[in-house]
Amino acid sequence: MDIDSIAPAERLDVLRTAERWAAEGRSLALATVIETWGSAPRPTGSHLVIDAEGRFEGSVSGGCVEGEVVTEALDVIAAGQAKILEFGVADETAWRVGLSCGGRIRVYVEKLG
């Protein structure tokens, strides 16, 4: 899977939301899928934008790891330090975040602005 398999309108929707929220003065983080393996449901290049209140738009996993990514994004917003998150069946978080079907996903989370 790669970024070309994401509908252009879907990518633009997330980025437009990020622009709108930034214009409103919200503190933001952007999570981007940087690597997948196996049955990961979202392709590389998929985005999730998160504000400091935990509101988000987009998807990095079709619902499997979004909650964990939002939690980590709040730390990124507060600390200003980017993180790479990894989830998969070999990882102890696999059962907690719902990747029990297999696969692995790496997500880069960075503060915007």
TrEMBL record:
It comes from the Bacteria. Residues 21-88 form the XdhC- CoxI domain. It holds the Pfam family XdhC_CoxI. PANTHER family: ALDEHYDE OXIDOREDUCTASE MOLYBDENUM COFACTOR ASSEMBLY PROTEIN (PTHR30388), MOLYBDENUM COFACTOR INSERTION CHAPERONE PAOD (PTHR30388:SF4). This is XshC-Cox1-family protein.
